[in-house]
Amino acid sequence: MLTSESLEIFIRLLYAFAAGGIIGYQREKAEKPAGLRTHILVCLGSTLITIVSIFAFGKMGADPSRITAQIVSGVGFLGAGTIFRYGPSVKGLTTAASLWAVCGVGIAIGAGVYFAAFLGVVFILLVLVLLELFEQRMRTKNTSPIRVLLTDVPGSFGRLGEALGKMGVNIKNVKIMKDQGLFIHCDLWLEIPSTQKLQNVLMVLGELDVVKGVELE
User: What is the set of domains in the chain, with CATH numbers?
Assistant: First the structure.
């Protein structure tokens, strides 16, 4: 029969599973390096270590905070694995930060501070979802949005970027979505110089053999 302590541990781990899953699902949908399983495991792991430090080592007279403090520094190595350089820009910083934040949620759950953990999940989602929309709007301000259907072959997006570069067109933002077939859907926000016209850009892109369709958003 479950004791009240065992039931409390079960509830905390279940809460951690749900909290990590909610945030991880958002990262998975956004096709980030660390998705659903990674965020669940980080949240569960930090919760479990916190529980052990409180219910086991704490009862033996040890300082539970000493073990818990190592979680925060340890998850940094995991987060570093999601960061990579792509040309002049750095990708994965937000995902690394979300792992670190989920670790904090797990510690709060393990310590039994449920309200703080709940607020943590809410605010993390606000940052990942709403602020991302705000940032995207700022990045794509005064741009021309188009959608390009590319053949899914090596170098197809490079060919597209090369053609735009020759016309002096700057890609301000891009979203790439693969379908189940042989094509890639690319949403592009283009900064077109005054020397070029949008229709001319669309015509040039449409003539590429890797492009199967171009349309305005």
Answer: 4-138 (no CATH), 144-216 (3.30.70.260)
CB of 71 within 8 A of CB of 46?
yes
Burial of 96-124, coded b for 16+ CB within 10 Å and e otherwise, reads bbbbebbbbbbbbbbbeeeeebeebbeeb
| β-strands 211-216, 144-151 pairing | antiparallel
**C-alpha–C-alpha distance, residues 10 and 27, integer Å:** 26
Task: Report the distance separating Cα 206 and Cα 200, nearest Å.
Answer: 10
Which of these, 175, 165, 168, lies nearest to 197 by C-alpha position?
Answer: 168
Q: What is the pLDDT along the chain (217 residues), one digit of tens a residue?
A: 668 888 999 999 999 999 999 998 888 887 777 788 989 999 999 999 899 888 876 666 667 677 777 787 777 666 666 665 544 455 667 888 888 899 999 999 999 999 999 999 999 999 888 877 776 676 656 677 888 888 888 888 888 888 888 888 888 778 887 776 678 888 888 888 888 888 888 888 888 888 888 877 6
